[in-house]
Design goal:
4-stranded antiparallel β-sheet; alpha+beta; 8 strands
């Protein structure tokens, strides 16, 4: 850690507020001391962040605190010529250093603020989740739920109590579109969405990718699960085991 005297000099140097004598002596010190050079670089980075474009800048109250710190210092105060060995600096240099320290202390708040923005953005995306429940036509306990995020074209597929698969068979999740929809479908107006198997209890939970059709309103008319041949699941030969009509 640099001494308080040197930290104030660094702040004055970064803000261009040292007298010519101070600046000359400080630059000599800067050329021979890597720790001071590193401190200067860090404080310059702090200033760059504080005056960055609005989309990446700290909250407005941090900028306001900096401006108030500057405005509170008399601009016409006499500036004594100071040397590095003397224990005091000009009023303006001390005020400028205080402004820089305000920014530095605000950086942690800035990162917390940015983290909050990310969390809030994620929450807004979650608001667009649409859940579909696919059930059997009979009184079976089999159930599938698909929670779709159309913005990301991602979904969570949860399946419960499906019958065990015979050898050479797989389950297939289909997205059924209305006739004439501007998407590539099979003869049954369906898009193969996911091929999956279940565990011994007939359950599975996984993340899947869904077709772009979910971004178009009133295009998807149904979702269904069928049992298909593992070697050719796209043939869509099986009848719906689970289905929901939209």
């Amino acid at each position: 850690m640099l001494s308080e005297q040197l930290q104030l000099l660094v702040a004055g140097y970064v803000l261009g507020d040292l007298s010519s004598e101070e600046a000359e002596e400080f630059e000599q010190l800067l050329a021979t001391n890597s720790a001071i050079a590193q401190e200067v670089a860090q404080m310059q980075q702090v200033l760059e962040i504080s005056y960055a474009p609005p989309e990446v800048s700290p909250p407005s109250h941090l900028r306001l605190a900096i401006m108030e710190a500057h405005q509170a210092i008399p601009r016409n105060s006499p500036r004594p010529v100071t040397k590095l060995a003397r224990p005091f600096l000009s009023v303006w240099t001390i005020g400028a250093a205080a402004a820089v320290l305000i920014v530095a202390l605000g950086i942690s708040n800035y990162h917390l603020w940015r983290s909050l923005q990310v969390i809030q953005a994620q929450s807004r995306q979650d608001e667009f989740l649409t859940s579909y429940s696919l059930r059997a036509k009979n009184a079976s306990l089999s159930l599938a739920t698909v929670a779709v995020n159309p913005n990301k074209l991602e979904a969570t597929l949860n399946v419960e109590n499906l019958p065990p698969l015979p050898p050479g068979k797989v389950y297939v999740l289909w997205t059924v579109l209305k006739p004439g929809a501007p998407f590539t479908t099979d003869k049954k107006n369906a898009i193969l969405t996911e091929v999956f198997k279940v565990d011994a209890q007939g359950n599975i939970s996984k993340q899947i990718t869904v077709p772009k059709a979910y971004r178009t309103e009133d295009v998807v008319t149904a979702m269904a699960v069928t049992m298909e041949d593992a070697v050719a699941p796209a043939k869509h030969a099986g009848a719906p085991i689970l289905i929901v009509r939209l």
